[in-house]
Design a protein that fits this description.
Radius of gyration: 31 Å
Order of helices and strands: HHH
Number of helices: 3
Shape: elongated
Largest sheet: none
Helix content: 55-70%
Strand content: under 5%
Length: 88
């Protein structure tokens, strides 16, 4: 198939250089480069499965009930707000 492409100047220089080094026609080098690029992008690289390593954080402070986490978060937020307003 015949088509027209606009190729970046640096890329065109590298393709022409490769054609000269290998003694192959420019269009053959371009086709090979496109084919190789398409093959590499067709299959995503294999990824290792995500693993989470648990870490012991110790016991909560005395008087902290983790079953009431939202209440604890609200109290901490209130304390921080009061601290900021007190320093104004």
């Amino acid at each position: 198939m015949r088509t027209t492409l606009t190729i970046d100047d640096e890329l065109a220089r590298l393709l022409k250089q490769r054609a000269a080094e290998t003694g192959r026609p420019f269009k053959e080098v371009v086709s090979e480069a496109l084919r190789t690029g398409l093959e590499q992008t067709a299959t995503p690289p294999a990824c290792r499965p995500y693993q989470l390593k648990p870490v012991a954080l110790g016991r909560p402070a005395r008087g902290i009930d983790l079953d009431k986490a939202l209440q604890l978060a609200g109290n901490l937020e209130d304390q921080e707000l009061a601290r900021k307003l007190g320093s104004v």
